[in-house]
Design goal:
The protein is mainly alpha-helical and about 110 residues long. The protein has 6 helices and 2 strands; from the N terminus they run H-H-E-H-H-E-H-H. InterPro entries: AB_hydrolase_fold (IPR029058).
Length: about 110
């Protein structure tokens, strides 16, 4: 993560306003976000742009939710691209080069 990034993270999570915003974002998921998702589904709205679903190899995402591509595909007009990053939960900090290369390939099309 590096000393400067670590200092930024510590400053963020020790600021009560930041912590409140983080908690509220998670809390919106089963209520506000779900209602918006249900309205989009009922209206037949789909994601129209190319989609890349990336996740960490050494995290529990698949154990909790199943195949991430299978979760996202019904929401997307076109096929969903996928990438498994060889990291734990914090892929940007733990595998920045692999993540950057994966994103660059996807964005170049």
């Amino acid at each position: 993560m590096g000393e400067e990034n670590h200092a930024d993270a510590v400053a963020a999570v020790t600021d009560p306003r930041t912590v409140r915003a983080m908690v509220e974002d998670y809390a919106a998921s089963p209520h506000v976000d779900r209602a918006a998702d249900e309205a989009d589904r009922a209206a037949g709205r789909l994601v129209e742009c190319p989609v890349l679903v990336g996740w960490s190899r050494h995290d529990d995402l698949e154990d909790l939710y199943g195949d991430p591509v299978a979760v996202w595909q019904p929401w997307c007009r076109d096929a969903v691209a996928s990438a498994v990053i060889d990291s734990g939960h914090h892929m940007a900090e733990q595998a920045p080069e692999q993540l950057a290369a994966t994103l660059a390939r996807f964005l170049r099309g």
